[in-house]
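ok so for the tutorial part 2 we go from a plain amino acid sequence to predicted C-alpha cells. step 1 is just haveing the sequence, like this:
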Amino acid sequence: MLQKLIEVLSNDELISLFTKLFTPNILNFIKDINGNHIIQKFIFTVKYPKNQFLYDAINSQIIEIGTHKHGCCVLQKCIEGGTPLQRVTILLIN
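step 2 — the prediction. this is what the C-alpha cells look like for a chain of 94 residues:
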C-alpha cells in the first residue's frame, strides 16, 4: 500500500510529509523484509533532490546497512537509481 502511495506522490507537500515520516525510522525500514521495498520504491520514484535524505541517512550508517541482508539490496538500488553525485558519495564513503 505504501508503495502505491509513493507512486502517486505528486506535490512537494506530500513528499515532505512522507520524508518526515521516514527519516526517524529509516534504518528500521531498510532492515525490514517488507520495509526495504518501500525505500527502494522511493529511490526510483522520487528523484533528486527530494530523495537526498535517504542518501544522507544511508551514508551516515553505510557499514551497518551494507552488511545487512536487506540493507545491501537497498544500497545496490541507491547506486542504480542515484544521480552521479549520489553514486560517487556512496561509493567513496568509508
